[in-house]
Amino acid sequence: MGLGLFFLVLGTGPLAMVMFAAKLGFGNDPNPNPVILGILAGLTFYPSLGLVA
Question: Which one of 4, 9, 20, 26 is most buried, by most CB atoms within 10 A?
Answer without folding.
Answer: 4
